[in-house]
Amino acid sequence: MRRRIRPQITDRIATATLYLVAGAFVLLLVAFVGYFLYSGRSELNFKFLFTEPAFSTAGGGIGPELFNSIYLVFLSGLISVPIGIAAGIYFAEYAKPGRLTDFLRLSIETLSSLPSIVVGLFGFLVFVILTGWKFTLMGGALAVTILNLPVIARTSEDAIRSVPESIKEGSLALGATRWQTIVRVLLPSALPGIVTGIIIASGRAFGEAATLLYTAGMSSPRLDFTNWNPISATSPLNPFRPAETLAVYIWKINSEGLVPDARQIADGASAVLILAVLAFNLLARFLSRLLGRRFGGSRS
Q1: Phi, psi values for residue 59, rounded to 5°
Q2: What is the DSSP letter of 235?
Q3: Which residues, including other chains, have CB under 8 Å from residue 209's CB and lie 6 or more apart?
Q4: Angle in degrees, 0-180, between the axes of helices 262-296 and 2-39, rounded to the nearest 10
Q5: What is the value of pTM for the model shown?
Q6: Could you count the other beta carbons within 10 Å of the beta carbon of residue 93?
Q7: Which of these, 197, 233, 272, 279, is most buried using a 10 Å CB contact count?
Q8: What is the CATH number of domain 40-296?
């Protein structure tokens, strides 16, 4: 009897421990998000989100910084998504076991573990000094691309490998070439996982600060949102201009205290940043389920 009771007790203790650990993570997340939302609740309004910062008086907003963050994610995605998906296709379908493949995988793992501050210093050397661009939005996007590429490549590979082998074999049996099978069968079936990885990487880029301090800069020119000429220095679409993102602005205003209500602005901007990152994660889950039903069929 004792031998039968002991496994049951052990199982219950282990189960209770796991529930406690999971609950602790949930409470920590709720406390973290709740604190910033409560602290910045007074600034969550239309004026704060869409007006320019005030450099000497109270009452400024985060409009240009918010736009710069979104534009940076867009530019980084244009570069990292095609390269990351191509790398995932190579590892899932073309790479053969050997020293070259092992070396490439080691390179990706090493790249994914690099601290963002190190990537920022590398970006400062290459995209700011060697290119002669100085601090630019494009330099920041290229530096963030270095951080995002390993994530997109690994999620793309895992998503493609998760497609049942029978689907691939059926396509080949019907006379499709290998490339046609990849483009028209494997990629659509793996799309939910690929999109999830892209959105998660975009959320990380949206909240990145250390890398952008050395590449995109800590100031922005006065932007004219009626000027959509990407060559103009005052155009918001110009990728070769300095661009202070939202995360950098939070660090700057909270450390330098340039305005009387610096703490209120930092709290409001932090709340916006938290909500944006949560939105990225929720969007990833929603699109993953939606695309899963669209390309994988509903199980209901």
Answers
A1: 100, 15
A2: -
A3: 116, 245, 247, 248, 250, 251
A4: 130
A5: 0.85
A6: 16
A7: 197
A8: 1.10.3720.10
